[in-house]
Structure prediction request, 306 residues.
Amino acid sequence: MKKQANEKIKTYGAKGFRERFLGEENPIHLLFKSNSDHFFCLKIEEMMGLQFPVPPSKHSCHTIIFITSGIHSIKIGFEEYYTYSNGIIVVPAGQIFSLEHLNNKHVGFVCQFHPDILIGKYGGSEMINEFDFLKIGGNPKIPVSETDFLFFINLFNRLQHEYVTSEKANLEIVQSYLMALFCEMNKNNIKTTKDTSAATALSSKFKALIYDHIKINHQVNYYASLLNVTPNHLNKSIKAATGKSATKWIDETIMLEAKYLLYQTTFTVSEIAMQVGHEDQSYFSRFFKKHEGTTPVQYRKMIDKS
Prediction:
């Protein structure tokens, strides 16, 4: 049955997704531990597959699927992707995807992690910005060369080992392995022809500018001027290439930078507000709570407890 035009596409958290599509009686639920909503890495054959097709949906976590044998299919945005042996497919957090065909004949790994994991000790906004496959509208399909296959197997095995052998995975160790995995994926990433479109090229330049100028200006007009295009053209291009508005990208960049600073520094909330271009601390706190559901102070306390 097709979705009604006015029906919203649902965004699932990790636990909600499992409860909806794995089936209540599925013994796979026993594999998920206390912090699996933030991270898990399991072999596909252990997970035994989904019980129900997934309609167009969004997930709050990034998902990386590494196929070592067989064929996996998934629809991301408006395109259907087939991943064969020695291939990786990435579904970024917030990206629309669907799974119509439940094929349990492929093997490999599924690694899922919340974006906040990348805010830890070894992360940085500039570094994360280098990984195109973690962005909506980026290239989600990454082939693995024969010479690098063992490197990927080792990294996924290490991530799986950290998850299954600990009651609560050490997220700092997980982050270091994820960063190594991302660098290997970048090396193997082959740009598709659509990545050279004018909208995608403009989008890439825009996103790079945000990180460079986030302390200075948050207005779409400002970035349009730097790129020598009209604000309307910039908005249309960004929306076409990524599915999100230019304003949404600016807001998400402010939030990501603020989270890094809350995690990695002892700056006061007022100092962090200044670092991300907000001179008014109270306005920044309201902005942060609107997007995160909690205040900067509460967010930092949650980090300290994790």
